[in-house]
Known about the structure:
Elements: H1 21-28, E1 32-36, E2 39-42, H2 44-63, E3 67-68, E4 74-76, H3 77-83, E5 94-97, E6 103-106, H4 111-119, E7 130-139, E8 154-164, H5 167-187, E9 192-196, E10 207-213, E11 219-223, E12 230-232, E13 252-255, H6 262-269, E14 277-284, E15 289-295, H7 302-308, E16 315-317, H8 320-325, E17 343-347, E18 356-362, E19 365-370, H9 372-375, E20 382-384, E21 403-417, H10 419-423, E22 427-429, E23 435-437, E24 439-446, H11 447-457, E25 459-460, E26 463-464, E27 475-479, H12 485-500, E28 505-507, H13 514-524, E29 528-532, H14 534-539, E30 541-546, E31 552-556, H15 560-568
Parallel strand pairs: 3-7, 15-17, 17-20, 27-28, 27-29
Antiparallel strand pairs: 1-2, 4-6, 5-6, 7-8, 8-24, 9-10, 10-21, 11-12, 11-21, 13-19, 14-15, 14-16, 18-19, 21-24, 22-23, 25-26, 29-30, 30-31
Amino acid sequence: MRATQLYAPTLREYPAEAELVSHKLMLKAGLIRKAAGGVYSYLPLGWRTIRKIEQIIREEMDAKGGQEIMMPIIQPAEYWKESGRWAVYGDEMMRMKDRHGREFCLGPTHEEMITTLIRSEVRSYKQLPLMLYQIQNKYRDEIRPRFGLMRSREFIMKDLYSFDADIDGMNISYQKMYDAYDRIFTRCGLKFRPVEADNGAIGGGHSHEFTVLAPSGESSIAYCESCDYAASDEKAELKVIHSQEEELKSLEKVLTPNCHTIEMVKDYLNVPIEKTIKAVAFQDDDGRLILAFVRGDHEVNEIKILNAVEGALHLHMAEESAITEAGGCAGFMSPIGLKDGTIVVVDSTVMEMYNAVAGANEVDKHYINVTPKRDFNSEKIIITDIRMVKEGDPCPHCGQPLKMTRGIEVGQVFTLGNKYSKSLNATFLDENGKEKFFEMGCYGIGVGRTMAAAIEQHNDEFGIIWPRAIAPFEVVVVPVNAKNEDQLEYSEKIYEELKAAGVDTLLDDRRDRAGVKFNDCDLIGYPIRITVSPKGIAEDTVEVKIRKNGEVHIFNRNEYKDKVIELLKNL
């Protein structure tokens, strides 16, 4: 490709709308252009990188036995109604009707589509295991699309679905995909970590997110430096903190005027925050009141609440009237004295406290000397881990202090079990002729997010620094003065030689000043730049600059090609 033929409209300044580095650089370097909020066009340079990521994905999916298919983007509502997700998926689903009034959606995911496809075609265990994947657009009506390709309404995803005869087979498929994802993101040149994750709206069993480590990431990750444990903050398991045993004191109600926060209570009563019990009140989509209790220095993890309370899909802060109706008092709550039937979730660590402080469900009053094992009705409450992880918490595997970092989720693998095969009545006949539900897995990669994450991780003040495997071009050949016939001819010979050697090469034959072209090379981030100058022609040498570290090499014409190919292997 010649730069004079390449559509790559770079910008002089960063667009004001962009916040993340990746968003700024993709716009400035001419990789994408905004069509609407959360909707982008991919320009040639960006699309070349997308295609290279997709090719890596295809090779690794095929190597594990995956077969590529293509399913409809427009999905009939009846499949979603059959699975029970049409009414509960939420406002992110883009819904529509055809001219006959039939309901459809633009696919946010494809569990229903793939399951209904397989249930009508696969009837015997002899046809299993089966792994089918596609790479196509998905649609989710984000309430606030932002950060470029990180959170958009239309995005490219690879999703693979596995079908197995039993749980052991499903776990084998899961491990195959886990290993494939490790290879994919390694080949893309990313520093990443697989972390235990929550399944969210997809549902099912266990899950791992593949997270690219970057300060700009939306995901918060807890990890251990002493073992291989890592988990998202939503999923991180936390060990129960056992308080030192104390002689039990009698429960007592005391005045705490205007002390409606934990900070106020601890200061007024002069007690450590670790001796207080914090209350957070939620309601779910059905209006049910859910009261959560954690130690005063801890935070409630809403995902863990949703997993603990059967039937709860979304949470919002509770109305004060709902709290009052349950016998509670906003700002002064505890499980003591609430009406029967109120959903109460207490963190396991709270149950190990002695002589603590908790609300008395009366205005300006708290209980002191609360010992939850004695004072809470354990038969009528849910006791489980519901707190948010924080740095320094003990690792659930080895007990060493956990560290926290930020990351960008680029892929996730799930075991689904028979969640969808059961709801959609997708069965096969086993070796004994008995009808069974498929055991399924689901495996997704955000292709555009992977490109954006690579930029977040590989950039400097001059622009992008592409890993070689996903760079739009591996090498750019730049004549200092393309108006000079000798320089252009010399550059074209190098360009043709590298192409013939299988190197993905761009010839920057524009007649712009050398500084303009060099700046564009750094902005776009080609891994290697070869500069052709009058001095080089006279000495029959080429100047090779590595974008990653700025190293400059001068190679003789008869050796440069092998040297460039060798350098590329390490980029």
